[in-house]
Design goal:
Blueprint (H helix, E strand, L loop, with lengths): L8 H12 L3 H6 L2 E2 L6 E7 L13 H14 L6 E12 L8 E11 L3 E9 L5 E13 L3 H7 L2
Antiparallel strand pairs: 1-2, 2-4, 3-6, 4-5, 5-6
Amino acid sequence: MLTRADHDDETLERLVREMLEPDGATAGLGGTLLPVRDGKVTFRLEIRPEHLNGHTICHGGVLAMMLDTVAGLSVCQEDRVPVTVSSSINYFYPARLGQTVEVIGVQFTATDRYRTALAHAIGPDGAILTTMHAVFRLLDKPPTILKEEEGK
């Protein structure tokens, strides 16, 4: 049941860019998408003041959002979109102001309607700051999703 990405890197990168185009939430964080390599989707994010919590470290929600984003992007499909069903996050070390963090997601398992993915955030010294295991359901691409929701 362990799988690699469903697509070659070129196809996955195209799907990732299509998915990110209307994604204002991710764009608002200011991360940079790196080229897809070996089925891995990677964002680089410099921690800025607006990412900090009251402890003056990167808010866990910011890291969780980035982990969820790269994990979901790693399971993109031509005709279906991944939506998060569940995730489990482990926080090991904080990300600090001015640090550059790389957040990497990769598909782990696949069934007909579900995918699982692993993601981790790596600090500038190579330490794993945060990890995530996530489950995604594959839904038909919009506007079908909106019509499905209206019919319920």
